[in-house]
Amino acid sequence: MIQNLYLILFFCLPLIFSSFNSELFELPKTYFLYSLTLLITLTHLLNFFRSQKPLFKKTSLNIIFFIFLFSQIISTVTSIDPHTSLFGYYSRLNGGLLSLISFFLLFTILPLYINRRFTQKIILASLISGFFVASYGILEHFGINDHLWVQDVRSRVFSTLGQPNWLAAYLAILIPLTLYQLHTSRSTLKKILYLLLIFIFYLCLLFTKSKSGIFAAVSSVSLFYILYFIRQKSKNLPILALIFTLFISLSLIINNPIKDFVFFTRQSSSVGGPQKLDINNSTLEIDNLNITPSGEIRQIVWQGAFDLWRQHPLFGTGTETFAYSYYWTRPQEHNLTSEWDFLYNKAHNEYLNFLATTGIFGLGSYLLLIFSTLVYFIKKIFIKNNRPLLNIALLCAYLSILITNAFGFSVIITSLYFFLLPIFSYPVSRSPTIQFSRPQKYISFTFIIIFALYFSQKILYYYLADITYNQALSADNRQQYLQAKSLINQSLGYRPNEPIYHSKAAFINAKIALENPDNSDYQNQSIRHLTLAAKISPFNTNIWKEQALTLFYLSTLDSKYFPLSITALENVTRLAPTDAKTYYLIGKYYQATQNYSQAITAYQKAIQLKSNYDHAYFSLAQIQFEQKDYAAAKINFENTLKYAPKNEQAKDYLKKLEKLLPQN
Questions:
Q1: Nearest-10 crossing angle of helices 541-554, 499-515
Q2: Is 80 exceeded by the pLDDT of residue 283?
């Protein structure tokens, strides 16, 4: 049963996504991982108390993994936001302490059930699953379901992984495993099938246009054949020639970063995944959209991550808290990129992310785990001579993860392979078991059942909570506020300590309060939810911004709430001193209440932080026009058009100013 559960995990996890959830890909995948981990752990405990298996197999990698897990526990305890550190950033979850505990359990249990035949089954399950994922990705390139997504999925596919770079990282893992199957198959038909599978994987990989993924795949394949020639007597030169011909031909025919580099083609940087691309300004102009190259943005984010570590060197700001703490050291240069108002919940470099959020202890233990795994594979290949071709494939797949993690971050599927790939080559061995008396077994089974019921309920409730939360968002967008209130209350019933739910509940209650001004209960409920959200997650800038907007709504019923809304935004400026948008929002709030002097100050601060902020220039110019400061208004309307040449309102104002200003 445990072996079958592992096979289900490796086969199903890449394929899972759900339109019922607030996040379509990572969130349902993570809850599926939790469910399978729970089933595997409980089944293993039953085997242990039945004296069929030991509790764990003591190995050097187990100890090092535990040291790494211990570092994450410390960073969770000392975190600026323990809730986020425990559960993970809401829309991602992977990387939170719960996900790491799950991987640790899977890592600890699998060696007790692994054998050569089972390893082969896991690899086959992974490749079959990858075939479906890659095939769907190729179909996406040719337009299947392209109407469902806000981004251009034809340009960069993401299949069932949710983002092109994540899909590319996954395919880069599978290609070395496919090469292993190709070179160990004796049947001609199987060799043809594996060659076709490599073609499908690499074609889909090119359609992602992921530089890091393609680089990782090419590097891992190159290393595979270097080590293959060193360790194997039989060289299979025709297959080798065919593989390289296939890779080179596809790389030069399909539009991708390799072809762009060879032929010096200037290509735009695009963003994949389920998030809508919001472009305002940048340095690279493509079809009237200014898109900053991703490399430039990464360098800015990496600098902010490094500065953050310098402030919190030992244990960081807390596991998975980068979305909040990055604002503390966010370089002002980030405001001049096309992704200036994107929320970065990761450092886009796994190693710097660990450094910033878990400090030198977290990164050090993580690097120790990586180093120990590499040494383990190298020993298997060169010293113990134990199944060298399999270990070469596993090493290359593992290295591909290290490469893609250097330019991005791990998601649930890449983490699964990162932590469990070393177990694929574990030797088959018998370990001593512990004998239990019948009363001990009965007591143990009782506790296991209670444990199973409790955590099964938690997983189910958390998953249902997100579904009703997503439905509440939909009802809110349709302005069906009473229905939205009922749904968000269901979410809070399932999961009462989730700050995002409290924040949304506050916002919905505020809207209902506007429709029922004589009923103060809705106002009181809104304030109660706001207080709880800020208490649970005090460094979450998004929650403070939502609090400011909610209080601004309530201020139309009672003016006492307006200063509180400004206070909430001022709190954001303390948490995010280089966030130009917050100062712009402060200006809009003051402008709405005709406090023009304060609004001007806020807009000027926003422009100081972001010199090409067309919205701030326009709002500032509007106030100056109303105050008859026409000369200053003209300058700022012109600045608006400089950065937003299609702003028709600014053009209309300038036409009016031509009549009002004296002609030279």
A1: 10
A2: no
Degrees to nearest 5, angle at CA 452 with 451 and 453: 95
Q: How far apart are CA 613 and CA 360, in angstroms?
A: 37
**What pLDDT is recorded for position 290?**
67
Q: Where in the chain is the domain with CATH 1.25.40.10?
A: 486-660
Query: What DSSP line would sit under 503-569, residue for residue?
Result: HHHHHHHHHHHHH-TT-HHHHHHHHHHHHHHHHH-TT-HHHHHHHHHHHHHHTTT-TTHHHHHHHHH
Q: What is the pLDDT of residues 2-27, one digit of tens each?
A: 999 999 999 999 999 999 999 999 99
- The single-letter code of the amino acid at 322 is F
What is the distance between the alpha carbons of residues 612 and 310, in angstroms, rounded to a whole number? 30
pLDDT average, residue stretch 375-386: 86
User: What is the C-alpha radius of gyration for the chain, rounded to an integer number of angstroms?
Assistant: 28
The mean pLDDT of the chain is 91
Please, are residues 22 and 473 in contact by the beta-carbon 8 Å criterion? yes
Q: What is the chain's length?
A: 664
Residue 583's nearest CA partner among 493, 592, 574 is 574
Model confidence over 323-355: pLDDT tens digits?
A: 999 999 999 999 999 999 999 999 999 999 999
621 by Cβ neighbours in 10 Å (0-12 / 13-18 / 19+) ranks as buried
Return d(Cα 562, Cα 566) in angstroms, integer. Answer: 6
Q: What is the DSSP string of 261-280?
A: HHTT--------SSSPP---
Query: What does DSSP assign to residue 289?
Result: E
For the record, the structure tokens of 313 come out as 């060197």
In contact, 392 and 231? CB cutoff 8 Å: yes
Identify the three-state secondary structure at position 318: coil
Q: Say what the pTM is.
A: 0.92
CA distance 386 to 394: 13
pLDDT digits (tens, 9 = 90+) for 432-479: 788 888 888 889 889 999 999 999 999 999 999 999 999 999 999 999
Residue 234 has a CB neighbour count (10 Å cut-off) of: 7
Which backbone phi and psi does 285 adopt, to 5 degrees? -95, 120
CA separation for the pair 569, 580 (Å, rounded): 12
CATH architecture of 486-660: Alpha Horseshoe (1.25)
Specify the residue for token string 């990496």: 302
User: Which 3-state string (H, E, C) describes 195-250?
Assistant: HHHHHHHHHHHHHHCCHHHHHHHHHHHHHHHHHHHHHCCCCCHHHHHHHHHHHHHH
Look at residue 266 and tell me whether its pLDDT is greater than 60: no
Contact by Cβ (8 Å): 130, 446 = no
**175 vs 294, which has greater pLDDT?**
175
C-alpha–C-alpha distance, residues 574 and 561, integer Å: 20
CB burial of residue 659 (10 Å; 0-12, 13-18, 19+): exposed
Residue 289 sits at φ, ψ, to 5 deg, of -110, 130
